[in-house]
Amino acid sequence: KTLSNERVLSEEEVARSSGESMAEMIKSIPGVNSFKTGTNVSKPMIGGFTSNRVQILNSGLQHINQNWGDEHAPEIDPFAYVDYKVIKGAGALSYGGGAIGGIVLLEPKPLKRTFGIGGKINGVYATNNRMYAPALMLEGNHAFLPKFSWRAQASYKRSGNIRSPDYYQDNTGLSETNFSYHLGWFEENWNVQINYSLFESEVGIFSGAHLGNLTDLNNILEQDRPNDIDTEGFSYSIERPYQLITHELVKGSFNRYFENSKIELQIGRQFNIREEFDKELPRNDYLASLDIPEFSLSLESYIANLSYQLSKENYSYHLGGGIVEKDNTVNSFIDFIPAYKSTHYDLFSVGKWDNDKWNIEVALRMDQVEMDVNRFIQTEYVGSKNSFTTYSAVAGIGKKLSEHFAVNLNYNYAERAPAINELYSDGLHHGTASLEYGDPTIQKERANTLRLNADLDLDRFSLQLNSYLQWIDDFIYLEPDGLDL
Question: Taking the model in full, what pTM does it have?
């Protein structure tokens, strides 16, 4: 085959990385790195981009969470998935728009279609932070109901304070509980499947990282190590400051197969809660007794996607569209990110042709985002509306120069609408201890990317070369403009 724009983790790589975060697992894929802002906080970085410029597909649905912060790791249980892909070419446009970096596609193992019950037990232990992570998976298919298959999976991860060469970092523990199930009913030319997953995590934040003033910061910078009070020893306990994160996903899919094509309908709901607790309790005794988070958001989303795929010997075609409804609620006194509702429509078309020597791919996509924002300004709520239409296009050509060597040239044009934090963040970003202010007048980004990739695959040796040139107009970024004392 000619060179593909998909990069997939092998079964050996997945097994070797068990117990690590999803971002740490996929960084072995060329062009992918892990962006870390803490012991237990990491997110994928593709081509130098992360957060809003990288999209994650969780069991076929866009993973919707509060991903605008550098310290917001995706709520993914690595034990629940066996198929990890990074997609950068035309195929990426069938999953999402605005992913200037690329798409991370996570899929669970296909359901068992042979009679019997099977399972798998995983166990991981790490010496540095004494992390232990057991995981159990059971699946089955029965002779008395052969059209029905099922799987249940659960995992638990617990770690304590991380150890530097000569001291422990206090309050850097993690407690994580995950559960999922997958059900399917299979007929000859159609099937129905249901996926459910629940992710719950408590993440400790290094106590020495939260400082009260610039004097404390300067003192820390001048020292060889943190203060003794923040390096007292090993413990599994998690105290303030910490984060509580919950992510729930339920998805139903219907697939109807024809001779050379299929129709797929996906419907899903996701519910994400993020709570952040500061190092210090409020000075008000009553509020302190409640022990409530200083910052709390809940994001509920509904997704519906419909697509048609045609595949023949030398060409394939994929056409589809969808809608996403989001409702973000502020549950705390701090409304750094405001309450808002948004509706996102999309249409896409992807075509591919290949033979023994060549492959050609072309894709087009249109996204429409409507936002209705409700901000609390001084003593009253003020409504604002934003609307963005973005377009994306990909054209690529690949050539198999020999049995073992192939090259691919790809051009990608992508527009990205600004995210909610880039438009309306207002005040203290708790997780980074910085003051950030959005701009509701900014417009969409426009990115042009030219990629040249090469693959050399011999019997006992393989080599990949990935190069790209990228230029972006109206790039959106945080611009430091001084100190607020």
Answer: 0.92
